[in-house]
Write a structure and sequence with these properties.
Nucleotidyltransferase, domain 5, single chain, alpha+beta
Length: 212
């Protein structure tokens, strides 16, 4: 939903395609005006169409296209209960990567004391998995934090939050954030796909004349 309450469809656009997409929106809709904030640029047309371009690595500095297409050295941190993947993205190349997994039991239908014991065991396994992810993130990214321009995260939000809460990673956690990546259990191929998607721009589009 947009701020106005209209249903929106989300698309993602690569930095290279962004200028053409913006020109296309302007040509399809009359009287487009733009307003900007640190984390978004909102396009509004007199025909009721609108689009919210979510600014990667806010705050927005300078012109939108220039900001979105700027060359950046990025850290990537993907975490779910069952694994993690960490890497540095330089241009289109992944460097200094580390991928790992830990066993975390699934949910159980058992009740009573067995369920409580199972839940404690599962929580302990998750903490161990997140600690392993924090260790890997520290190993790969902590020393490079000062040279990184931004951080892209994905997977499970609570897991990523737990990992970045590690005191060793406070400089990394303070970096400007890119788009959130809803990835499956991190593996090498997932990290490679994340690297391809990391710089894309999320746009929420509302077109009252189209069904979604």
């Amino acid at each position: 939903m947009t701020e106005a309450g209209e249903p929106a469809r989300r698309i993602d656009v690569s930095p290279a395609r962004l200028p053409r997409w913006l020109d296309g929106f302007d040509s399809r809709h009359p009287g487009v005006t733009r307003s900007r904030a640190d984390d978004r640029v909102t396009l509004t047309s007199v025909d009721g169409a609108s689009a919210v371009v979510w600014v990667p690595f806010p705050p927005l500095t300078g012109e939108l296209v220039e900001h979105c297409t700027r060359s950046r050295r990025l850290g990537i941190v993907l975490v779910r209960r069952g694994g993690y993947a960490v890497g540095v993205l330089e241009g289109s190349a992944l460097t200094a990567t580390k991928v790992g997994s830990r066993h975390v039991q699934g949910k159980t239908k058992a009740g009573g004391w067995s369920q409580q014991r199972f839940a404690r065991r599962r929580d302990n396994q998750a903490r161990i998995a997140w600690q392993a992810a924090a260790d890997a993130t520290h190993e790969v990214l902590a020393a490079r934090a000062s040279s990184l321009d931004g951080l892209v995260t994905g997977g499970d939000r609570s897991a990523v939050t737990a990992v970045l809460a590690d005191p060793r990673l406070h400089r990394l956690a303070a970096l400007p954030r890119g788009r959130w990546l809803p990835v499956p259990d991190p593996r090498r191929r997932v990290l490679e796909k994340a690297a391809m998607d990391a710089r894309n721009i999320d746009i929420d589009v509302v077109d009252p004349h189209s069904s979604h």
